[in-house]
Write a structure and sequence with these properties.
heterodimer; A: mainly alpha; ABC transporter involved in vitamin B12 uptake, BtuC; 14 helices; B: alpha/beta; Rossmann fold; 12 strands; disordered N terminus; binds adenosine-5'-triphosphate; binds magnesium ion
Chain lengths: 347, 321
């Protein structure tokens, strides 16, 4: 990112001086950043335990389980689409890995590999149907959401005979897979879990992808104006399909964490989580209409989610307040984003 | 890959110089025998024969025949809804024709995407400009044809080069941009149009298509665009120039295709038609009475037309009238 910091060119006299502050205000994630700081200070005051390293690590872990998905969902939203199947697709991925390995008694890594293929395929099918039919992604992914919900329940009962998958804890490869997807690290006395690292790496890679690669340029373009993008030669269809597959990939990562953090999966889980991912992305500055947003914003959105979620526990309040906080943050952050967007899009 | 090709092309273009110090084209012989001035072979850069297009049950274009040569300007004129944009969208790969043949360098083609057209060296300025309002100017300029550095997974945008080229290309057009980081949606309509034109001029390696490029422009910028058309022609590009304004078309055009309600109502070489005839043809016989008024209204552009005609004569030697 140091390449960004080059000496400013001689400015036109029609450009007013823009200080650091107003430059910062032009960023998509500003609303979320302000919200995150306010929330952090707030919880530090009402619940001093919040500031301890280990509770902070817990907040980060909670954030990462939303944040990993928010990365894919934020990119998809910048590309102008929604994915309502993202929540249950996480569980589909975990179920695939666990049921396949268990049923065929193979090394769990085979199941993990198959789950990746299935997750990417779900994304591909979502994107492909969308591009073929030109239907809104809301409808297409609502349909896949319902189908996956049904498949998760039906197939789990059919294969495993229960609503939860049988335990795979004693199977070959379980320990090594757990070491990757659900490990505990103790760094300087602080317990950190592997999804936190995966999350940070994902955010870093996608930020770079968005801002500094051709594909990133195309993602903004297909979300901003699909027809214009097509007219100048952007591969619109493949960009969008790729974005859905990206959500699939994130779903696979989180699904594998869910599976290996325990050793079994509840087939009915995941429903409703798609909204948490979308909320994180929207709080983070992604426009519902596409073409604007950032990966780091989605991460901050997820962090706000994690802080509100755990902060309420540390403050020893009734968790009923959680949804209220989330709603308030969503409202405030989107209002700030709206103001920013009006400035940017003053056609 | 393609971006690199474009690039090398671009440097070649600049080396040749934008004011036509490259291969000079003998307009005289060009108008007599219909051969390609650069390759001296009897093929057209692009050739349409009996091309037709319908959108569902709407017939937008039928039986259109025209040719585009290197170093020549083909003007397409017609009223609103005549099918001009439809025609160029077929050439630019945005739509596909249902009837007739479309040849590039003598080879029959049906372009399935604008990418394919760009790879064949055809760049277009669309009437609706095709810019993404929320994206910065420089990103719009290079959208779809980005310059990259680095290899493999570390291939990344060459932001510095792209910003510089954008700034320079627009400065060449007389558009002095405040800041290329500005979202393009914040520019004025004419400024946006200039960005779209500068982009097409930059990327059009063989052919340049302009759909009503002067519609939103001031007199100075209109002049710059018409001058650009001449420069592109002198560099050996085939240019298709779409306009409503015969005063803009006549000074720069070598060939004129007149469209009306999706049909060709005339296809002329410059030597076979005068400005008045062209204007009359466009207006149609019945509307001749109105034409007098219209011409008066257009009077303000007369200066520009004269100025440009003088320039045409200057850059291309004497023109047959
Ligand atoms: N996508 C489309 N679907 C249906 N009909 C279309 C479509 N595009 C163009 N048409 C129709 O085709 C006809 C020709 O349109 P076109 O845009 O080519 O006209 P034009 O000559 O460019 O007009 P203008 O001077 O106003 O730009 C019009 O009657 C228009 O309604
Ligand atoms: Mg048109």
């Amino acid at each position: 990112m140091t390449t960004l910091l080059k000496p400013p060119p001689a400015l036109d006299e029609r450009v007013g001086k823009r200080g650091m502050v107003s430059n910062l205000l032009g960023r998509p994630e500003i609303g979320a950043l302000v919200g995150a700081i306010v929330l952090f200070i707030f919880f530090s005051i009402v619940a001093p335990v919040f500031l301890q390293a280990n509770s902070f690590a817990t907040v980060l872990y909670g954030s990462s389980t939303i944040g990993i998905m928010a990365v894919g969902v934020a990119l998809l939203m910048i590309g102008g689409e929604f994915d309502l199947s993202a929540g249950v697709a996480v569980i589909s991925s975990a179920l695939t890995a666990s049921l396949f390995s268990w049923y065929f008694s193979v090394n769990v890594w085979v199941g993990v590999g198959l789950a990746l293929v299935v997750s990417l395929a779900i994304g591909f099918v979502n994107g492909w149907i969308l591009m073929k039919t030109k239907l809104p992604s809301f409808i297409v992914t609502l349909a896949t959401f319902l189908m996956l919900t049904g498949l998760n329940l039906a197939l789990t009962r059919l294969i495993g005979g229960s609503v939860a998958t049988p335990s795979i804890a004693t199977m070959d490869g379980f320990a090594s897979a757990q070491a990757v997807f659900a490990n505990d690290f103790t760094i300087a006395g602080v317990d950190l879990k592997s999804p936190v690292f995966i999350w940070i790496i994902l955010v870093a890679i996608t930020s770079w992808l968005l801002l500094r690669t051709r594909v990133g340029n195309w993602i903004f373009a297909v979300g901003g104006d699909e027809n214009a993008a097509r007219a100048v030669g952007v591969p619109v269809k493949w960009t969008k399909i790729g974005l859905f597959m990206g959500v699939g990939f994130c779903g696979w990562v989180l699904g594998m964490h869910n599976l290996f953090a325990f050793d079994a999966v509840q087939s009915g889980e995941g429903i409703g989580n798609e909204f948490l991912y979308i909320i994180a992305a929207v709080i983070g500055g992604c426009l519902l209409t596409g073409g604007y947003g950032s990966a780091i914003g989605g991460a901050i959105g997820a962090f706000i989610f994690g802080m509100a979620n755990k902060g309420i526990v540390y403050a020893q309040w009734n968790p009923d307040w959680f949804k209220f906080f989330l709603g308030l943050m969503l409202l405030l952050a989107t209002i700030v984003n709206l103001i920013v967007k009006r400035r940017a899009d003053s056609k | 890959m393609t971006a690199n090709d474009m690039n090398s092309n671009e440097t070649a273009k600049h080396a040749a110089g934008p004011t036509g110090t490259g291969p000079t084209i003998d307009q005289e012989t060009l108008l007599q025998n219909e051969t390609d001035p650069l390759t001296h072979t009897p093929v057209h850069l692009m050739e349409l024969e009996g091309v037709g297009k319908h959108y569902g049950n709407i017939i937008a274009l039928t039986e259109v025949t025209m040719a585009v040569d290197m170093g020549r300007v083909t003007c397409v004129l017609g009223d609103n809804g005549a099918g001009k944009s439809t025609l160029i969208k077929i050439i630019a790969g945005l739509h596909q024709h249902d009837e007739g043949t479309f040849k590039i360098m003598g080879q029959e083609r049906k372009l399935t995407s604008p990418r394919e057209a760009l790879d064949s060296g055809i760049a277009a300025v669309y009437q609706d400009l095709a810019v993404v309002g929320l994206m910065p100017i420089w990103r719009n300029f290079f959208l779809g044809s980005e310059i990259t550095t680095g290899r493999g997974p570390f291939r990344r945008l060459d932001v510095k080069a792209m910003k510089e080229i954008t700034k320079n290309e627009l400065a060449d057009m007389g558009i002095d941009l405040r800041d290329v980081e500005q979202p393009i949606g914040q520019l004025s309509g004419g400024e946006r149009q200039c960005v779209a034109i500068a982009r097409a001029v930059h990327f059009g390696a063989k052919a340049l298509i302009l759909d009503e490029p002067t519609a939103a422009l001031g007199v100075k910028q209109s002049g710059v665009v018409l001058r650009y058309i001449l420069q592109a022609r002198d560099r050996g590009l085939g240019v298709i120039f779409i306009t409503h304004n015969p005063h803009h078309a006549f000074p720069v055009g070598d060939r004129f295709l007149l469209l009306k309600r999706g049909k060709s109502i005339g296809y002329y070489d410059k030597k076979d038609i005068t400005l008045d005839e062209l204007t009359a043809q466009m207006a149609g016989g019945a509307e001749l009475a109105e034409l007098a008024h219209e011409l008066e209204a257009l009077g303000s552009h007369g200066d520009l037309a004269q100025e440009l005609e003088a320039e045409v004569a200057e850059t291309a030697g004497q023109l047959p009238h």
